[in-house]
Design goal:
The protein is mostly helical. It is built from nine helices and no strands. The chain has two domains: 44 residues, no CATH class; 107 residues, AhpD-like, CATH 1.20.1290.
Length: 189
């Protein structure tokens, strides 16, 4: 059960409704739960959802690398909603099921592509320690380029903020969605 009531169109104030409408009109086409939480602060919602749209859809990373990194973040923070939503997106972007299963089990996935490995390792190191070792950084720049690495760091940071928002307010995965089989905050895997 969420810790706060998510606003509905019927209960939204005009400034909330404006952000909601801009979000629906954007690349997402819908309003995810994290944005509904942020609507309690409409200015935060407006700015954060625009950043999310940028780091998810408009970077040099492309969908496969973005979704791979998002799954790393969702798994690290055991964010049920984020994981459930991005399972479908990752499959659509070409992330193999066995890679998803390895990330869920907190194992190093067998990634055949060097760039996939570099993105996974960079995201994993950054989310785990807040830093990236020099060899991991250099491998990522070599594999995907400097611009993509800058955008990857931003994507990991943004989706960490999303995970923190969803976890802090105990937003569950959408009903009936596949997701992590662990209890938030009590993951022992």
């Amino acid at each position: 059960m969420p810790r706060l009531v998510l606003p509905t169109l019927e209960t939204m104030k005009p400034d909330q409704r404006a952000v909601y409408a801009k979000t629906v009109a954007g690349r997402r086409g819908s309003v995810p739960a994290n944005v509904l939480v942020w609507l309690h602060s409409p200015e935060l919602a407006a700015r954060a959802q625009k950043l999310g749209e940028l780091v998810r859809y408009e970077t040099a990373l492309g969908p496969r690398w973005s979704e791979l990194a998002i799954l790393v973040v969702a798994r690290h923070w055991t964010c049920h909603y984020e994981w459930a939503v991005h399972l479908t997106e990752a499959a659509r972007a070409g992330v193999p099921a066995e890679v998803v299963e390895a990330i869920e089990a907190r194992r190093e996935p067998a990634l055949a592509d060097e760039a996939d490995r570099a993105v996974h390792r960079f995201a994993s190191e950054l989310v785990a320690s807040g830093r990236v070792p020099e060899d991991v950084y250099r491998a990522a720049v070599l594999a995907v380029g400097q611009k993509a690495v800058v955008e990857l760091a931003a994507l990991v940071g943004y989706y960490t903020m999303v995970a923190f928002t969803l976890n802090a307010f105990e937003i569950p995965a959408p009903a009936g969605s596949p997701g992590l089989d662990r209890v938030p905050g009590r993951d022992t895997a």
